[in-house]
Amino acid sequence: MFIGHYAPAFVAATSRRAPRLGALFVAAQLVDIAFFSFLILGVEHLRVVPLATAMNGMDLYDMPWTHSLVGAIGWGVLFAIAIKLLRGSWAAAAIGGVVVVSHWVIDLIVHRPDLTLAGSAPKLGLGLWNHPWIEVPLELAFAYGGLAFFVSRTRAAGTAGKWSPLVLAIGMGALQAVNWATPQPEAVGGAPPAAGWLGLFAYAVLTALAWWVARTRTVR
Predict the structure, then answer these.
(1) pLDDT tens-digit series, residues 42-56
(2) Where does residue 118 rank: exposed (0-12), middle (13-18), buried (19+ CB within 10 A)?
């Protein structure tokens, strides 16, 4: 799941008590932002394995600090504290923290058993990455259903606000298409050197677009 993770951010952003959409985009992917950062630093690891799942060749065998439920809750607490320290309300902090933890819950649906509760066995995951005919429409429904919900409960603040959600939708679709079109690896190996940086770049682009959308639309 990639753009599907943004569904909780879109829904949360329709509350006047919540952080703005750009911050919620960070929250929705904070677990993966941390993972790719740790991948670059050598703290967590993945390897590529042909047909690890039908949709991608990622063997996510070592990610206890980010993709355990305890780890996700920890990142949610840290995000909530950051929101509060940045002069947010306790309500905004709580909403942001819940969006962070939603990442692990959504991952549970699509990952093969590689998620944990506290960093060690049992490994959990329902494995919808092995069923593209279910995962692909589900991901699109999550992402664009969330965006439609956001648009229906906000209004444009000027001309740019009429078009900014469409630009975000196109950006989401383009990056997701790249993700889906990436070919399976041909042999077992370590993580490609650029994998972490590419992931962080994609999140930065979509967060910037979400920040712009929030600047051009207001909650009804």
Answers:
(1) 999 999 999 999 999
(2) exposed
